[in-house]
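Sequence only, no structure available. Ideas?
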Amino acid sequence: MTKSHSRKLTHFSDFNTLLKILLGLMVIMILSSTLAYAETVSVDVEGNSFDVEYTTEQVVVNSIITEYEPNDDYAGLIINVEVIGDSGTLGFIFDRTFFDSTFDGVEDDFFVLVDGDFANFIETETTSQSRTLSIQVPAGTEDIEIIGSVFGDSTPEPVVETPEPVVETPEPVVETPEPVVETPEPVVETPEPVETPEPVVETPEPVVETPEPVVEIPKTQCGPGTILKDGVCVLDERCGPGTILKDGECVLDSTPKPTETSVKGMAAELVIAAITTFVVAGIIGIILAIMSKVSKSND
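Reply:
I predicted one. Tokens follow.
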């Protein structure tokens, strides 16, 4: 019984040891899959070798090649990779003297393609000496292309020509004597006098204007209400009856009328008064006759 019990304890201790070893291996595998490893690879650019530092997480870098077209401002890195998990991360630290992206002397963005498609990446750090990229690598990725504009040491540095200082030397002043020019005396030719004909003055004949004879028309005065026409005083028919023309306007005729008019008016008034008297007397007589008849009938 004692031996069998000791054998069971020995077997149980061996099992615990194996379990601890398995757990340790699993932890190491998990840590190895999650930790990022920093590595360095040598890259050749037109005969010049550069060390490129990169970090990987679940990504294996197989090779890095370069492409460069200086006339087109194109410089690229093609990285062949293998993803050992669902996805991975690849980081690069590019020294500006090795690889950079600029445009017209100003810093520009990199382009990153994963199997020909645009990749998700960020530039995590930018300094005056280096630029750091972090690229997301999906599962199944084979090639990653990073596009910039220049490999730093592969292009000659621009030669800056410093212009030589221009020293202005004053030109010597040479006094040249003024040339003496003898001017010949002008020859004045006096033209011969030309005979000018005497002007012919035509005197116009005097025009004598004979004045027309003035015929004086004797003034004839006409009375009121008449006008002078063809030398005879006639009635002024320009104004209505009872008016005369005075100072160019028709006004009432203020001259006294003949006495016949007043006599006729008086005679008419007398006749009317007599007729009125007879009528009144007849009416009174009728009234008196009626009154006398009434008084007789009462008696």
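Confidence is low (pLDDT under 50) at residues 154-160.
Hope that gets you unstuck.
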